[in-house]
Amino acid sequence: MKNIQTRMFEEDSKEIHYVNEDIIIMSLQPYAYELMKSGTKKMEYRTRFRKRLTIAVVYISAPVKAICGVVLMDKAIIGTPDRIAAIAEAHIKGNGASVYDYLKEKKQGIAIPITDFIELAEAIPLDELRAKYGFVAPQSYVGAKIYPELSIRLAKALDGKVVWQG
Fold it and tell me: How much is the pLDDT for 19?
């Protein structure tokens, strides 16, 4: 995959360039994907995640089993389970308790702001991903660079939505 730049992450009119390591393939449950797509879900909560800006290609788990979209994610917010649960509650009323329950056994949790959502014009089903690219659905996320041919296809699919710099 080529280096990329996207207008979604401009900071004080400065261009930000991305390298292969900034792009991941992330698994989501179908309901979480639909909430992101609708604009309701503006944060993702994890027990571990990257600390930098991220472009996440979204693989939706069963029953969908396909890559369907891309989310642009800002720098992660790291905090105690109480702090992350408070962020969750502020974003979606009633969500704080479930986020706290998810994180309570950990010393810290992570809230990742979602800055933009792009749905692919055509989903890429798991059968095709396996046959053409040797794809294995990640449990959480994996760097996209391990699938170079898939990365090229995604760059073409996102042409004009995310500007890929070479």
Answer: 56
Other Cβ atoms closer than 10 A to 143: 15
CA 10 to chain centroid, in Å, comes to 18
Q: Shortest CA distance to 113 belongs to which of 28, 46, 164? A: 46
Q: Taking the complete model, does pTM exceed 0.70, yes or no?
A: yes
Per-residue CA distances from 1 to 57, 119, 135, 151 (Å) = 13, 19, 16, 5
**Is 85 in contact with 96 (CB distance < 8 Å)?**
yes
Amino acid present at 63: P
Architecture of domain 4-164: Roll (2.30)
pLDDT score of 74 more than 80: yes
Ramachandran class of 12: left when φ > 0, alpha when ψ lies in -120 to 50, beta otherwise: left
Q: Residue written as tokens 């994180």?
A: 103
Question: How far is C-alpha 161 from the geometric centre of its chain's CA atoms?
Answer: 16
* Burial of 98 from C-beta contacts in 10 A (0-12 / 13-18 / 19+): middle
What's 8's DSSP letter?
G
Mean pLDDT of 39-51: 91
Domain assignments of the chain as residue spans, ordered by start:
4-164
